[in-house]
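so ive been stuck on this for like two days lol. basically i have the seq below and the ligand is zinc ion, smiles is in there too. i just want the complex predicted, nothing fancy, no docking runs or whatever. if the output looks off dont worry ill sanity check it later, just need somthing to start from for the group meeting slides
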Amino acid sequence: MLGPPGAGKGTQAERLALKRGLPRISTGDILREAVQEGSPLGAVARATMDAGRLVGDDVMIGIVQGRLDRADAKYGFVLDGFPRTVEQASALDLMVGGRGPLVVLDVVVPEDVLVQRLATRRICGKCGANAAVHWTAACEKCGGGLVTRVDDGNEIVRERLKVYQRQSQPLVDYYSVRGTFRSIDGNQPADVVTAAVEAALSAAAAAGGVVL
Ligand SMILES: [Zn+2]
């Protein structure tokens, strides 16, 4: 699942995974896990992040490959936050080769709406989780209080979106020529987006020769 920060991609990925009984594999989560486990790739990732740099394609690809090899991902998975680059995308094609079609859903939201959403985004003051729309006063993961992010000023948000756009356009170009690619209008209520995700998934899978 592709989409810029603020598009609601994480929420949709979580719902899809739950409904289909598949693991939701978020790059943030598996990166944290690899670092905690102290695996060789995790150690490289930690050193990179400690130095304030982004984890490179090779390390990211290795970590995702390790995760996809686990038993719970045998019959499918929902990827959230990977791939980010064309190099990662072509590595992913090799990983899923022979496993059925790779369906790519791109959640699209106009920039002004994203800026509005991100500038008013709430997070858990205790564990840092992004608050879902339906969370009222407390974090549903740890019970912590919700706070508004202070670092998400409009300028910073626009810059982050520009960076995302620059990085992801080649990725969208890479996938959009495929019959298993679908764009989703993310500028709708979350439940409407969920229904659109389901419909797009079925249509894209059928185009890839599989009934889901
Ligand atoms: Zn929390």
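The beta strands are 24-26, 78-80, 104-108, 122-124, 146-148, 181-185. Residues 122 and 147 are 5 Å apart (CA to CA).
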